[in-house]
Design brief:
The chain is α+β, with helices and mostly antiparallel strands. It has four helices and seven strands; from the N terminus they run E-E-E-E-H-H-H-E-H-E-E. The strands form two sheets. A five-stranded mixed beta sheet has the order 4-1-7-5-6. Strands 2-3 form a two-stranded antiparallel sheet. Helix 1 packs parallel to helix 3. The protein is globular. The chain binds zinc ion. The site of zinc ion has 5 residues, from strand 1 and helix 1.
């Protein structure tokens, strides 16, 4: 069986005065996500799921936050590098399933635009991408958000 599965998790604190970007989509919210890059926790979780499925080094090892090259970087750069490694190894994405845990902002109005953005970035049909918004219900921090992603890859040679 030429299937590989990966899991990714990422969380960031909110930061005033920074745009909020999730899955490459600008979300209307007074705070963005703190981090060395643009803080796109969803793209970071997907990148790590992809790298994990391949058994490659994780996002922090490939793109250390001490490295000035990645300061304020567009997180699409990280994702595209993971995709390049996947393609080089002869795999393609079967589907991915993502959860965004946040009390604020509400994710549901943005679900479809996030799916569309991911579909274009990952070059997979929107039907193969699931985005779920969950409220925190007592889980960890209330001044930030967390994203989880599982991804399935198939070897095509
Ligand atoms: Zn991150």
């Amino acid at each position: 069986m030429n299937l590989r599965i990966g899991i990714g998790f990422d969380s960031h604190e909110f930061q005033e005065g920074k745009p909020l970007i999730l899955g490459g989509v600008r979300i209307e919210f007074p705070k963005g996500l703190k981090g060395h890059s643009d803080g796109d926790a969803l793209l970071h979780a997907i990148t790590d799921a992809l790298l994990g499925a391949l058994g490659e080094p994780d996002i922090g090892e490939l793109f250390p936050d001490k490295d000035p090259r990645w300061k304020d970087a567009d997180s699409k750069v990280f994702l595209l590098e993971a995709l390049r490694r996947m393609e080089q190894r002869g795999y393609r994405i079967v589907n991915l399933d993502c959860v965004i845990v946040a009390d604020q902002p509400r994710i549901s109005p943005y679900k479809e635009s996030i799916r569309k953005s991911l579909s274009e970035l990952l070059r997979v049909p929107q039907e193969s991408i699931s985005i779920k918004g969950k409220s925190r219900e007592g889980f960890c921090m209330d001044d930030g958000l967390a994203c989880l992603c599982t991804i399935l890859l198939i070897y095509e040679g």
